[in-house]
Amino acid sequence: MDIQTILVIILFAGALFYIGRIIYRSVSPKKGGCGSNCKCGVDFSNIEPKNK
After folding, report:
1. Quick one: residue 39, left, alpha or beta (phi over 0 = left, psi -120 to 50 = alpha)?
2. CA torsion, ordered 44, 27, 34, 41, to nearest 10 deg
3. What pLDDT is stored for residue 35 in this prediction?
4. How far apart are CA 3 and CA 31, in angstroms?
5. Structure pTM?
6. What is the pLDDT of residues 4-51, one digit of tens each?
7. Maximum pairwise Cα distance, the chain
8. How far apart are CA 27 and CA 47, in angstroms?
9. Could you give the CA distance from residue 4 to residue 8 in angstroms, rounded to a whole number?
């Protein structure tokens, strides 16, 4: 193998790792909510609903 083939293989493996990491991070659940003040990370199980 010459140096060009080795460099292409390393670059290709890096690109696969990068794309796999992006896909994994977009699918994996978030631990602390999204941080945009939408209350998606808040636990409402202890709150009783009010009836108007």
Report:
1. left
2. 10
3. 57
4. 43
5. 0.53
6. 999 999 999 999 999 999 999 888 876 655 556 666 666 777 777 777
7. 76
8. 29
9. 6
Per-residue pLDDT, 8: 97
Domain ranges of the chain: 1-29
Report the SS3 class of residue 49: coil
Q: Which amino acid is at 23?
A: I
* 41: helix, strand or coil: coil
The single-letter DSSP state of residue 40 is T
Note whether 45 and 34 are within 8 A (CB): no
pLDDT for residue 43: 72
Closest CA to 42 of 50, 51, 52, 33: 33
Instruction: Say what the pLDDT of residue 45 is.
Output: 74
